[in-house]
Amino acid sequence: MPSLKTQHQVHWLTGQLCEYDKETIYRSSITARVRFESCLSLSVAALIFGMFAISDYYILGFTWELYLLLTMRIMVVSLCLLLAFIIGRWGGYSRKLWLHALPLWILATGIILIVPLRPESLSTQVTAVVVATMAFYLLIPNLLTVVTFASLYLNIGFLVSAVLFAEISPMLTLRIALLLIMANVVGFCALLRLESLQRKQFALLHEERDQNHQLLKEIAHRKSLETQLRMVAELDALTGLNNRGHFMKLAKALLQRSRLEQVPFSVFMIDVDHFKSINDTWGHTHGDWVLTKIADVCAQALRPEDVIGRFGGEEFVVALPDTSPDDAQIVAERLKKKVAELPLKEEMSGLSLSVTIGIAVTYPAEDDLESLITRADQMLYTGKRNGRNRVVMCSKGMEEG
Ligand SMILES: Nc1nc2c(ncn2[C@@H]2O[C@H](COP(=O)(O)OP(=O)(O)OP(=O)(O)O)[C@@H](O)[C@H]2O)c(=O)[nH]1
Questions:
Q1: pLDDT tens-digit readout, 85-95
Q2: Rounded to an integer, what is the distance from CA 19 to the centroid of its chain?
Q3: Which of 5, 376, 400, 401 could disulfide-pair with 393, CB 3.0 to 4.6 Å?
C-alpha cells in the first residue's frame, strides 16, 4: 500500500494547487460553502457601506454632494446585493471567477468616489480603506489573486484620489501609502497561509480517500480470488456440484446432525447407464453436456438441505438428512423419471437416457458415512447387474429391494 508521503505542490505566490485538475476539484468541492459565505459577507459589507450615508448627512447636510453620495451608495449597495444574490444562486470559483471579482471592484470604486465628495474626512476614510482591505482579504471568501488585484485597485485608487482631491502633503501621502502597504502585506500573507493550508489539507484528505478506495478494491479483488479458489477446491469444474472431498465434509456434518436429532439419513449413489456408449456415439462434448444436465436435474429435484456431489466420472452421490427409506425410494424414483424425461439435443434423439440409483439408509444414524456409501454403491451395482434403469434400496436391517 502506498504511503501518504506525496508532496502537494501549492504555488508560493497564489496559494493554489499547482496541478490544474486538483485545483479545479478543490474549487468545485467548496462551491456550496463559497456561495453561502460570499452571499452573506457581500450583503453585510454592502449594508455597512450604505449605512455610512448617515455620517454623510451629518458632515454634508442637504447639499448636492450628499445627493451625489447617496446616489452612488444606493447604486453600489444595489449592485452588490444583486451580485450577492447571483453568487448565492449560481456562483462558484471554478468557472465564474469574474462574478466574484466584480462586487469587490464595485465596493472599491464606491470607497474611492467618497474622497472627492468628502475630502475633509480623509482620516476616517483611511481607516475605512484599511478595514475594507482586511475585509477583502479575510472576510469575503475569494481567491487570493482576485482579492489582491481588487485590493490594489482600492488602495492605489484611494491614494491617487486623496492626492488629487484632498490635496494631501507628500509626507502624509507617504504615511498613508505605508499604512496601506502594511495592511496589504498582512492581509496577503494571512490569506496566502490560509489558502495553502486549506488546499494541502484537502489534497491529503483526497489522497487518503483514494487510498481507501484502492484498498477496498484490493479487498474485493482478494475476496473474489478467495471465492474462486474455494470454488476450485470445493466444486466440480464441469457440473458445479460439490467435488468428492467437499461432499464428504458436508455429508459428514449432516450425518452427525441426523445422529443428534435421531432422524433417518439416506445416501444415493447415482450412475448414468451406458454412458461410455454416449461418449463413443456423440463424443465427449455431448457426454459432458449430459452430465451437466443430470447434475441440474439433481439440483432441481432435491431439497436445498440435501447435499449433492460428483463422485467421479459419470457417478453422482447425494446425502439426504431426515429421509426415511420410504421417502428415499420416492425421491429416487422421481429423480430417475426426471432424468428419463430430460429433453436431449436433436442429434441424440435415439438415446434413452437412464440412471441406476443405489440407496442406503441408516436409522438411527449409527453408521459412518464411508460404510453407508459402500452399501449404496453395492446397491448400485446390484441395480446394474439386474438390468440398469432402476432404484435399489438397502437400509440397515433390511434386505435390498
Ligand atoms: N464425457 C465424459 N465422459 C466421462 C467423464 N468421466 C468419465 N467419463 C467416461 O464415462 C465412461 C464410464 O464408462 P463405464 O464405467 O464403462 O460405465 P457405463 O458405460 O456408464 O456403463 P454402466 O455404468 O455399466 O451402465 C468412461 O468411458 C469414461 O471415460 C467426463 O467427465 N466426461
A1: 999 998 877 77
A2: 24
A3: 401
Contact (CB, 8 A) for 366 and 255: no
The residue type found at 246 is H
Report the alpha-carbon distance of residue 182 to residue 134 in Å, rounded.
Answer: 11
**Beta-strand relationship, 355-362 and 391-395:** parallel
Neighbours of 19 (CB within 10 A): 14
Measured by CA distance, the residue closest to atom 13 of ligand 1 is: 276
Radius of gyration of the chain (CA): 44
Angstrom distance (rounded) from CA 386 to CA 231: 38
pLDDT higher than 60, residue 397? no
Q: Which amino acid is at 99?
A: L
pLDDT at 90: 87
**Would residue 167 be called left, alpha or beta, if left means φ above 0 and alpha means ψ between -120 and 50 degrees?**
left
Q: Any idea which residue has 447636510 for its cell? A: 61
* Full set of structural domains in the chain with CATH: 20-211 (no CATH), 244-395 (3.30.70.270)
30: exposed, middle or buried (Cβ count in 10 Å: 0-12, 13-18, 19+): middle
Half-sphere exposure (Cβ direction) of 253: Cα atoms closer than 13 Å: 8
CB-CB contact of 373 with 339 (8 Å): no
Which residue's entry shows cell 505605508? 178
Instruction: Let me know: does 25 contact 18? Beta carbons within 8 Å.
Output: no
Question: Nine-digit cell at 191?
Answer: 490569506
ipTM of the complex: 0.95
Interhelix angle 53-60/31-51, nearest 10 degrees: 20
pLDDT for residue 47: 95
Residue of minimum CA distance from atom 8 in ligand 1: 313
Q: How many residues does the chain have?
A: 401
The CA distance from 319 to 306, in Å, is: 6
> How much distance in Å is there from the Cα of 359 to the middle of ligand 1?
21
* 271 CA closest ligand 1 atom index: 23
CA dist., res. 144 & res. 141, Å (int): 9
pLDDT at 1 over 50: no
Atom of ligand 1 nearest to the CA of 388: 25
